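[job 0412] stage=complex_fold ligand=nicotinamide-adenine-dinucleotide status=START
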Amino acid sequence: MSKKILVLPGDGIGPEITAEAVKVLDACRAAGLDAELEEGLVGGAGYDAEGHPLPESTLAKAKAADAILLGAVGGPKWDTLEDLTKRPEKGLLGLRKHLNLFANLRPALLYPQLAEASTLKPEVVSGLDIMIVRELTGGIYFGQPRGIETRDGERVGYNTYVYSESEIERIGRVAFEMAQKRGGKLCSVDKANVLEVTILWREVMNRLAPEYPDVELSHMYVDNAAMQLVRAPKQFDVVVTGNMFGDILSDAAAMLTGSIGMLPSASLNERQQGMYEPCHGSAPDIAGQGLANPLATILSVAMMLRYSLGESALAERIERAVGQVLDAGLRTADIAYPGTRQVSTAEMGDAVVAAFADV
Ligand code: NAD
Ligand code: IPM
Ligand code: MN
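[job 0412] stage=complex_fold status=DONE, emitting structure tokens
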């Protein structure tokens, strides 16, 4: 049966980068992928058109889809909306929560051609291949109570950092299984020296470990992990952590790969239904100028083919096509350096499609 893919371009550079990823999806369909595409509104685009960042019609389409491709949401235009439930980011968080997309996979992989594009020394990053497994539907992002209110004559803002054992266990199992398929090393990142919620997190990870004797589990505090990621990133294989720590560490890891414009992601639920999006945001500073790197979004399509559509051969073809384009020296501005050829967002997308036909 034909698979349903929902495309949600969103805001800022979202429409530019998803347009390139859709070109690649179309090339996959021409190569035999049986899939139908439909579009929907999310984020600021949803708010502007329908008064809500996650319109009912979008949520219904998302629930019915096998996979979702999302560009990015947010931007200064909506940053001052008084009603916090209408902010673009709430559309994205709502999709994650409604579809129960608790497992966020963020692979930081350095294409060898980009060793010079990283701000770190080539020998520090060459051969880098880390998988960050970020819990996505719990933790401080969703904990109750939360709010801003007046206490003793001044306003206070508060959030709740909470995880249940079952939430920790299910993300832990995803990470252990991922480590089994990769290099057999799992580093759980927490703040168990200070926060009770992560004392429990560490306990549950330790409890799971004997079930995965082929995986070597270690623990690291998040502040040290941030430092180690830039000091010696190749010590990591799979990293598992909570929602907020994972958000922050994955942006840091992105820079190891040359640019945040290179980092794709998959967000999965228990049925392997998934939402695929670049790790970066809507980049308002470069929106509409053809400067955005579409490769994170294109590589997110490869993850979609692999994890939700059962088409790993096509996924590998996309990844090889990206490699070939980089071999040819084509670079968007964020990864360009002397000796390479700077191209626009659309030129990069077209080049990947052309290479896809060859590889
Ligand atoms: P950002 O990731 O949008 O941008 C950070 C920096 O990286 C900017 O200088 C930007 O130009 C650059 N950058 C990002 N993507 C790039 C790409 N593909 N190619 C080249 N350069 C790229 O983060 P921000 O500026 O903190 O946030 C901007 C908006 O995006 C905010 O509204 C934020 O809430 C939202 N956001 C959305 C998502 C998402 O939709 N998943 C993720 C992060 C941030
Ligand atoms: C991301 C983003 C989101 C997050 C925001 C936009 C809600 O930063 O996908 O990394 O914090 O998860
Ligand atoms: Mn983020």
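Residues 105-263 form a domain with the Isopropylmalate Dehydrogenase fold (CATH 3.40.718.10).
[job 0412] exit 0
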